[in-house]
Write a structure and sequence with these properties.
There is one protein chain. This protein has a domain at 284-341. The protein has 15 helices and 3 strands. The protein has helices at 3-16, 35-51, 63-69, 76-96, 101-125, 133-147, 166-178, 183-191, 193-202, 215-232, 239-242, 245-273, 286-293, 298-312, 324-340, and strands at residues 19-23, 26-30, 150-152. It has a 3-stranded antiparallel beta sheet. α4 runs antiparallel to α5 and α8 (183-191) crosses α10. It starts with a helix and ends with a helix. The model has no long low-confidence stretch (mean pLDDT 86).
């Protein structure tokens, strides 16, 4: 199946909320669970949790076992934060050097290595999750949903019943998991012209009622909104960057850092200014001088113009107390003082 045809197939599959596949000569259909069915699965999770709370390890108590088995070290959390920061910085570098082939190739190699380390740390922390109560409850809830949403396409009857063996169920579950659409694929779909034809017309109404949305539908919608906002951004990147997931992540991280720095700069200057009437900054170049001047309000800029006219129109030096705006401010202060008396 070529790329365009596969995109069309996946869009229709996601919109339908179903997965149709063949198993042992039968055509099967996995339907999207209703909101009521999802709620019942949550009820089942809660009941299983309460009934088995003393029979399994809780996820919050799994860390000592992970440490003892050597899956994680005492510095695991710090390592996770450190590698995440490294991955983020490499993505920013990838974006900033996107058009430099040599740097881009080197950045991609470093990023791939850092991602592998990040995945390894995550995988290590989940090594014993199959022993936890939360994992047990999640499996029971999943089995309940699949049992009530997997139909024979021809007879429209449920497939899983009392006679279904664990091996058969695991075979169905394996195929369903193997054919789930990962987020990288959904990103490609969200960028495709075929999907945009649906999205531009339907927007929020592309799917069913909100409570019955599948995970894939919600992911596709949120990613579509994200790409739409990126396209509307005043510094929107080139299509080549948008189509590169890592470079686009780098662009978004770069914009976040830029916004954060500008906010801190603005807050710092506002705090310094406070109630001061005049604050002076040193400019290192013309651009900085313009930025500093732009910090003034319209009223302040008008005062500067009036002062310049007064100074330029006088043959002798003009002292501060003789400036027209200063005189007016002093007179106003005296009037206010007299009113209070």
């Amino acid at each position: 199946m070529d790329e365009d045809r596969r995109t069309q197939y996946l869009v229709h599959r996601i919109l339908s909320g179903t997965l149709i596949f063949k198993r042992k000569g039968r055509t099967l259909e996995l339907r999207s669970p209703s909101l009521e069915l999802k709620y019942m699965a949550d009820v089942l999770y809660k009941q299983n949790y309460e009934q088995n709370i003393y029979e399994f390890i809780l996820r919050e108590d799994i860390r000592p076992l992970l440490l003892k088995a050597g899956y994680v070290t005492p510095l695991h959390d710090e390592d996770v934060k450190r590698i995440k920061k490294k991955v983020d910085n490499l993505k920013i570098q990838l974006y900033q050097n996107f058009w430099d082939r040599t740097k881009t190739r080197r950045n991609r190699q470093s990023l791939a290595s850092a991602k592998n380390r990040q995945e390894q740390l995550t995988s290590n922390a989940l090594s014993l999750d199959h022993l936890t109560l939360e994992h047990h409850c999640a499996l029971q809830s999943m089995q309940y949903i699949i049992k009530n949403t997997l139909y024979d396409f021809e007879s429209k009857e449920l497939v899983i019943n009392e006679e279904t063996s664990n091996k058969e169920y695991e075979d169905y579950l394996h195929y369903i998991n193997e054919n789930s659409i990962d987020v990288e694929e959904i990103k490609k779909i969200a960028r495709s012209e075929f999907w945009k034809g649906y999205y531009s017309v339907c927007k929020e109404n592309s799917f069913q009622e909100i409570g019955a949305l599948t995970h894939e539908q919600k992911t596709l919608y949120h990613l579509s909104v994200m790409y739409e906002k990126i396209a509307e951004h005043p510094d929107s990147p080139d299509d080549a960057v948008i189509n590169d997931d890592d470079a686009l992540d780098g662009w978004m991280l770069f914009q976040q850092d830029k916004m954060k720095a500008e906010k801190q700069k603005s807050t710092s200057k506002t705090d310094k200014i406070g109630s001061s009437q005049e604050v002076f900054y040193m400019a290192e170049n013309k651009e900085q001088a313009e930025d500093i001047l732009n910090l003034n309000t319209v009223e302040s800029m008008n005062i500067q113009k009036d002062r310049m006219k007064q100074v330029m129109g006088s043959d002798a030096p003009v002292e501060d107390q003789n400036l027209q705006d200063v005189k007016l401010r002093i007179q106003e202060g005296l009037r206010n003082q007299q009113k209070r008396v």
